Amino acid sequence: MEKIHDQNIFFLKTLFEEQKFDWIDNNQPIFFNFFKSGGGTHLYLIENANQKYVARINYYEPKNEWGVKKQEFDVLKLIEPLKISPKAYYFSKDNSIKQDLTIVEYIDGEILGDISEKHIFDLAADLNKLHTTYRFNKTGDTLPPLDSSPYRCTIYNEFANGEDKKIEKYLSLEGINKIIKPYNRINKKLGEWFNYLGIFDNLTKFCLCHADLKKENILTTNDGIMLIDWECAGSDIPETDIGRLFSGCELTERQQGIFLKAYYGNNPDEIVLQRILAIKKVLDFFHILEDYILLKRKQWNSDNMLTELLKYESNMDGQA
After folding, report:
1. Which of 195, 197, 185, 199 is nearest to 314 (CA)?
2. What is the pTM of this model?
């Protein structure tokens, strides 16, 4: 791994020497250091004079095919006037390291921890601003969006069909065998329920969504909330972002109520609330897998994971 970081840092040094970017003080030294990795991306901190930047370089090959770095760059350029995200400075696709990359502003902040009412109001204001400023007649993960009509909410399929969501991939984990059958049973039941809901029919108005709202992508700063990691951004219904936020940040029912009143100015229509909660239900299931295996927010324990899965299934059956 150190060899990869050395290669990437060498590439960045060469790039800056050759390009002489006008947003860099080329009379001052430039420092490059590995920062951290996650989500298929290596991050490198770039320091120059009193400014800091982050180079975001793919290491998961499919991300190059998906074009997520170009999408992130285009979205960040578009939404820069909103001041809710890092500035984007540079995008590269065809280069010597054969990995797509962006260079963005470094945000000096902390990952969202305990959630205060002010955080909720800030999030509601930021998302309302995002969703009402950029509206579309189609959905899709490109700009402009190009998906065909009629609209289908594909959030369950998006997660269930991901290779990292296949529980059989993790057979090396101690005690995983007791997880496989209940996980797949609940997964199947969830898909059969969500994909036949009529509440997503006949929708024709869409907006720009972050599409990956969770604590890890929300920073608290001296200037308020900032949203990072826009690789998944695209056009969809705003309920998808709100459902992701409720699940990804594990908002309590009280916190959800505060957000909804702040975002909508009042209580939303019943069918809007149904859509939000249906999306949240899907994400809550996969959140368990993220907690124990993918993002390792919780220490691996097959008994604890099984308990959470069965509790989820019981709640799902009770709400059906």
Report:
1. 185
2. 0.95
The CATH number assigned to the domain with range 110-319 reads 3.90.1200.10
The pLDDT-based confidence of 320 (bands split at 50, 70, 90) is: low
Q: What is the CATH number of domain 2-105?
A: 3.30.200.20
Q: What is the pLDDT of residues 244-286, one digit of tens each?
A: 999 999 999 999 999 999 999 988 999 999 999 999 999 999 9
Q: How many other CB atoms are there within 10 angstroms of residue 303's CB atom?
A: 10
Helix axes 238-248, 253-264, angle to 10 degrees: 150
- Helices 117-133, 253-264: axis angle to 10 degrees equals 40
- Write out pLDDT tens, residues 67-102: 999 999 999 999 999 999 999 999 999 999 999 999
What's the rounded Cα separation, in Å, for the pair 300 and 293? 7
- The tens digit of pLDDT for each residue in 164-179 reads 999 999 999 999 999 9
Residues 6+ apart with CB under 8 A from 237: 139, 151, 153, 200, 203, 205, 206, 207, 209, 275
Pairing of strands 41-48, 30-38: antiparallel
The domains of the chain are located at 2-105, 110-319
Check whether 319 has a pLDDT greater than 90: no
